[in-house]
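sorry to bug you again but im stuck and you know this stuff better than me. what follows is a protein written twice so to speak, once as letters and once as C-alpha coordinates for the fold. id like you to explain what the C-alpha coordinate line says about the fold, in plain words if possible. anything you notice is useful, everything is just below.
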Amino acid sequence: MGIAFATLALAGVLFGMRQGGVSPFDGQLTVLFAFETVIIGGLGSLWGTLLGGIVLGVAQTIAGQFSPEIPLLIGHLVFLAVLAFRPNGLMGKQALR
Protein backbone atom coordinates (compact mmCIF):
# COMPACT_ATOMS: atom_id res chain seq x y z
CA MET A 1 0.00 0.00 0.00
CA GLY A 2 2.84 2.35 0.81
CA ILE A 3 4.49 1.71 -2.55
CA ALA A 4 1.24 2.59 -4.32
CA PHE A 5 0.97 5.91 -2.47
CA ALA A 6 4.61 6.73 -3.16
CA THR A 7 4.12 6.00 -6.86
CA LEU A 8 0.99 8.14 -6.91
CA ALA A 9 2.78 11.03 -5.18
CA LEU A 10 5.69 10.81 -7.61
CA ALA A 11 3.30 10.79 -10.58
CA GLY A 12 1.53 13.87 -9.20
CA VAL A 13 4.80 15.75 -8.76
CA LEU A 14 6.00 14.86 -12.26
CA PHE A 15 2.62 15.79 -13.77
CA GLY A 16 2.74 19.15 -12.01
CA MET A 17 6.25 19.82 -13.28
CA ARG A 18 5.26 18.88 -16.83
CA GLN A 19 2.12 21.04 -16.89
CA GLY A 20 3.68 24.02 -15.14
CA GLY A 21 1.14 23.82 -12.33
CA VAL A 22 -1.79 21.79 -11.11
CA SER A 23 -5.41 22.77 -10.62
CA PRO A 24 -8.39 20.71 -9.43
CA PHE A 25 -9.76 20.59 -12.99
CA ASP A 26 -6.72 19.07 -14.73
CA GLY A 27 -7.74 15.42 -14.63
CA GLN A 28 -11.31 15.52 -15.90
CA LEU A 29 -10.51 14.78 -19.54
CA THR A 30 -8.04 12.06 -18.57
CA VAL A 31 -10.64 10.35 -16.38
CA LEU A 32 -13.18 10.58 -19.20
CA PHE A 33 -10.75 8.90 -21.63
CA ALA A 34 -9.98 6.19 -19.06
CA PHE A 35 -13.71 5.53 -18.55
CA GLU A 36 -14.33 5.34 -22.29
CA THR A 37 -11.35 3.02 -22.74
CA VAL A 38 -12.61 0.55 -20.14
CA ILE A 39 -16.17 0.58 -21.49
CA ILE A 40 -15.01 0.16 -25.11
CA GLY A 41 -12.84 -2.82 -24.16
CA GLY A 42 -15.36 -4.41 -21.83
CA LEU A 43 -15.63 -4.48 -18.06
CA GLY A 44 -13.65 -7.24 -16.39
CA SER A 45 -11.24 -7.77 -19.26
CA LEU A 46 -7.66 -6.52 -18.94
CA TRP A 47 -6.90 -7.29 -22.59
CA GLY A 48 -10.17 -5.61 -23.54
CA THR A 49 -9.05 -2.45 -21.78
CA LEU A 50 -5.80 -2.54 -23.74
CA LEU A 51 -7.77 -3.03 -26.97
CA GLY A 52 -10.14 -0.20 -26.00
CA GLY A 53 -7.20 2.14 -25.47
CA ILE A 54 -5.73 1.22 -28.83
CA VAL A 55 -9.07 1.70 -30.61
CA LEU A 56 -9.69 5.06 -28.94
CA GLY A 57 -6.14 6.28 -29.52
CA VAL A 58 -6.03 5.24 -33.18
CA ALA A 59 -9.44 6.79 -33.88
CA GLN A 60 -8.40 10.09 -32.30
CA THR A 61 -5.01 10.10 -34.03
CA ILE A 62 -6.51 9.46 -37.47
CA ALA A 63 -9.15 12.13 -36.88
CA GLY A 64 -6.43 14.57 -35.82
CA GLN A 65 -4.75 14.20 -39.20
CA PHE A 66 -7.77 15.76 -40.90
CA SER A 67 -8.68 18.52 -38.47
CA PRO A 68 -7.33 19.48 -35.04
CA GLU A 69 -10.83 20.10 -33.69
CA ILE A 70 -12.43 16.69 -34.17
CA PRO A 71 -10.34 14.05 -32.34
CA LEU A 72 -12.32 14.50 -29.13
CA LEU A 73 -15.61 14.24 -31.03
CA ILE A 74 -14.50 11.12 -32.90
CA GLY A 75 -13.43 9.49 -29.63
CA HIS A 76 -16.88 10.07 -28.16
CA LEU A 77 -18.56 8.81 -31.34
CA VAL A 78 -16.51 5.59 -31.22
CA PHE A 79 -17.55 5.19 -27.59
CA LEU A 80 -21.23 5.67 -28.47
CA ALA A 81 -20.98 3.30 -31.45
CA VAL A 82 -19.52 0.54 -29.27
CA LEU A 83 -22.26 1.10 -26.69
CA ALA A 84 -24.91 0.92 -29.39
CA PHE A 85 -23.68 -2.23 -31.14
CA ARG A 86 -21.73 -4.07 -28.42
CA PRO A 87 -23.11 -2.99 -25.01
CA ASN A 88 -20.73 -5.35 -23.17
CA GLY A 89 -17.68 -3.91 -24.93
CA LEU A 90 -15.44 -5.42 -27.57
CA MET A 91 -14.19 -8.22 -25.32
CA GLY A 92 -16.78 -8.09 -22.52
CA LYS A 93 -18.54 -11.16 -21.26
CA GLN A 94 -22.29 -11.69 -21.38
CA ALA A 95 -24.08 -11.23 -18.06
CA LEU A 96 -25.55 -14.36 -16.54
CA ARG A 97 -29.33 -14.31 -16.25
